[in-house]
Design brief:
It is a single chain. This protein is α+β, with helices and mostly antiparallel strands. The relative contact order is 0.19. Helices cover 37% and strands 28% of the residues. The strands form two sheets. Strands 1, 2, 3, 4, 5, 6, 8 and 12 form an eight-stranded mixed beta sheet that branches. Strands 9-10-7-11 form a four-stranded antiparallel beta sheet. The chain has one domain (1-319): Ribosomal Protein S5, domain 2 (2-Layer Sandwich), CATH 3.30.230.10. Bound molecules: 4-diphosphocytidyl-2-C-methyl-D-erythritol 2-phosphate and adenosine-5'-diphosphate. Adenosine-5'-diphosphate (ADP) is lined by residues 61-62, 66-69, 94, 100-108, 110, 183, 271-272. Adenosine-5'-diphosphate is lined by residues 61-62, 66-69, 94, 100-108, 110, 183, 271-272. It catalyses: 4-CDP-2-C-methyl-D-erythritol + ATP = 4-CDP-2-C-methyl-D-erythritol 2-phosphate + ADP + H(+). ATP binds at residues 99-109. Its EC number is 2.7.1.148.
Length: 319
């Protein structure tokens, strides 16, 4: 029996621009992704002679083959049948700390951890880039989650180029427990409402890629300019999620108001939502804004975290 334990961080999107339609039904994106300290813990244990199973006591996380981590294990077994025969199935235990369907890539990071962990347990020696290629079969956010840190993501989100590390960015993150947003719904609604500005042919997409507005965010990151990073936060999916979820607007507005008083750098919804984050410059300020926001919205359904940007993705802490 072999086992390993991994830290699987969530992500936020500092920038998300939808630039067009793709023949595969996905959307062509330009995103700036950032790993954060809020993380699941994933434990893997080989099970000689037994099938793969997932253990997770979070009521909204499936433990059958809908679980993205189980799918990652199945993909590895399919691609590496010899190692799979030798080691048998794997028990995947997920300690779920990342809120589910929140726009924070919780399922994707568990899948990424499973790929990284099985690479270690099965002594496969796969490179980060090979693991990312496998991850792209599981979901658009999985390749980013493998290496994590700060990165530009293009294509449907699976093409990753590392960016300089964002240091000293602290965050207040909020999410209503009972609210979940389906990513497929968010993109579908965007397509229905704003699809007429889409470009679908490759030449048009290439021309559009040259005109994306992510340049100022990328240069703010290169210059380590936190206040400019705060000004350049952007997410196209806010345009479809905010009109349907008034609580998200209330949380966003409250964080913006705290910002005016406490010097918040910027506020934005992450991914397809409904989580919203505010960027600040110190841990103490993050704690203060978190407390003030909890006082301003005294709703037990609202969960708030003080967290921070981190420079790494999946971290194997023991094997
Ligand atoms: C919006 C983002 C931003 O990082 O994150 P989340 O909010 O899910 O965390 C991602 O684009 C989500 O990535 P991920 O959650 O991996 O999506 P996938 O499983 O690949 O796709 C789920 C569904 O979203 C839509 N989809 C996703 C990615 C993309 N570029 N175009 C799309 O249209 C498709 O309808 C797809 O069926
Ligand atoms: N390991 C997992 N953790 C969380 N959700 C999972 C997992 N595997 C599958 N899911 C399913 O994926 C859906 C999206 O969850 P999640 O990945 O947390 O959100 P998001 O796509 O917003 O980042 C959930 O509704 C859940 O049913």
């Amino acid at each position: 029996m072999k086992s390993c334990s991994l830290v699987a961080p969530a992500k936020i999107n500092l920038y998300l621009e939808i630039i067009g339609d793709r023949p595969d039904g996905y959307h062509e994106l330009v995103m700036v992704m950032q790993s954060i300290a809020l993380a699941d813990r994933v434990e893997l244990r080989t099970l000689a002679g037994e099938p793969t199973r997932v253990c997770c006591d979070h009521p909204e996380v499936p433990t059958d083959d809908r679980n993205l981590a189980a799918r990652a294990a199945m993909l590895m077994a399919q691609r590496f049948p010899e190692a799979s025969r030798r080691w048998g199935g794997v028990e995947i235990t997920i300690d779920k700390q990342i809120p589910v369907a929140a726009g924070l890539a919780g399922g994707s990071t568990d899948a990424a951890a499973t790929l990284v962990g099985l690479n270690l347990l099965w002594d496969l020696g796969l490179t980060v880039s090979e693991l990312q290629d496998l991850g792209a079969f599981l979901g658009s956010d999985v390749p980013f989650c493998i290496e994590g840190g700060t990165a530009l993501a293009t294509g449907r989100g699976e093409k990753i180029s590392p960016l300089p590390t964002v240091e000293g960015l602290y965050l207040v993150l909020g999410k209503y427990r009972s609210l979940q947003v389906s990513t497929a719904w968010a993109y579908q609604t965007f397509r229905e409402q704003f699809g007429d500005r889409y470009i679908s042919d490759e030449a048009g997409l290439e021309e559009r890629r040259q005109r994306v507005h992510s340049g100022p965010m990328v240069s703010a990151i290169a210059r380590h300019d936190l206040s400019k990073i705060g000004n350049e936060l952007y997410n196209d999916l806010e345009r479809v999620v905010l009109p349907v979820y008034p609580q998200v607007v209330q949380l966003r507005d409250t964080l913006v108001r705290q910002g005016a008083a406490s010097g918040v750098l910027g506020v934005m919804m992450s991914g397809s939502g409904p989580s919203v984050f505010a960027g600040v410059e110190s841990e103490a300020q993050a704690q203060r804004v978190r407390e003030e926001t909890a006082r301003a919205i005294p709703n037990p359904d609202l969960e708030l975290w003080a967290t921070q940007a981190i420079p790494t993705g999946i971290d194997a802490i023991s094997s």
